[in-house]
Amino acid sequence: MLTSDDLVTGEAVALDLPPAGLAIRIASGLIDLVVTLVLLVVLALVFGIATTDVDGAIATIAVISVTVLVFVAFPTTIETLTRGRSLGKLATGLRTVRDDAGPISFHHALIRALIGFVEIYLFSGVPAFFSMLLSDRGKRLADYAAGTYVVRSRVGLTLPAPTPMPPHLASWAAGADVASLPTGLALGVRQFLGRARDLDPTTRQAVGGRLAEQVSAYVAPAPPTGTPPYDFLAAVVATRRERDLERLRREQATRRRLTARG
Fold this sequence. Notes:
Elements (H helix, E strand, L loop, with lengths): L5 E3 L5 E3 L5 H29 L5 H26 L5 H6 L1 E5 L7 H17 L3 H9 L6 H6 L1 E5 L17 H6 L1 E2 L4 H13 L5 H15 L3 E2 L8 H33 L1
Helix pairs in contact: 1-2, 2-4, 8-9, 8-10, 9-10
């Protein structure tokens, strides 16, 4: 069963990107708050000294400039350059991503900074706290406006067992021409095979059928008539894995021979 913590790719296959919890978001936010206040004090002192003997209009411009630099320009620049990581997120292992799990851009970072100034600094973080508390992805108001959310980037990786070759397709796969799949399609197929057991039969058949139709363009001849989409996809993945492993073994053996001769 797919949960609200799952992202869905164009191939209708869920991706696990766990949203950051409230506690770690607060810890990250406190680090960013301290950094921001330190930067604010430093720049306020610098601009204050520089505008000591100027008129009030220039002093007002200096105050506005410091505010924009500290609360908008600085966080926007940091999150843009680091693809979604503020200093607090770097320290706590978090990252801001788009709702479709892609990396954020300058546009997303700017919206988050502008609305973040209002919800965090003008309103002491109260709107942000209750928004994260009520959201199933821990979204604050800036995340809703920008179409983003924060994920844990330091998650332990557990590799699933390789998909086995369906026995009744072994002879067909041995003689089939199976080309390398595009990266996105290959990822979608592998994720579908790993999740297929958890899908209801109707969804499994529909998603598998769409993926099998895309994969069939890279396979010749077609599998035996009546082959279920899951079995066809499993055979393709298993065949590509075995052939790639064999190719790597040959390349490794060649390198060893050349090294030995040298």
